[in-house]
Amino acid sequence: MIAQPAVTLLSHEFCREDLFSVVFVLVDDWMIQTYGSSNLPRETQVPQFTDAEVLTLLLVGELCQAPRERGWIRQVRASLCTGQN
After folding, report:
1. Domain range for residue 61?
2. Residues 52, 22: contact at Cβ < 8 Å?
3. Is residue 2 part of a domain?
4. Could you give the CA distance from residue 1 to residue 26 in angstroms, rounded to a whole number?
5. 78 lies in some domain
6. How far apart are CA 35 and CA 10, in angstroms?
7. Among positive and negative, which fits the CA dihedral 31, 1, 53, 29?
């Protein structure tokens, strides 16, 4: 596991946006350290989420104990589209 000193500085009272940020930084650092990039190479030119972003969405869903993956993704998509927190 990657030692991330900033994680120990977190208080127990932080919002979901902070959780997304912390998880993304950890996942992105791990992807770069392991694969040299936060996104594995693809044959497509269509803009999409990076692998680190997808893993972050799924991990935060697990940490928030989302009961269903599809419901969680719909909730995230709705928040993303409306700009809500």
Report:
1. 16-36+50-85
2. no
3. no
4. 10
5. yes
6. 27
7. negative
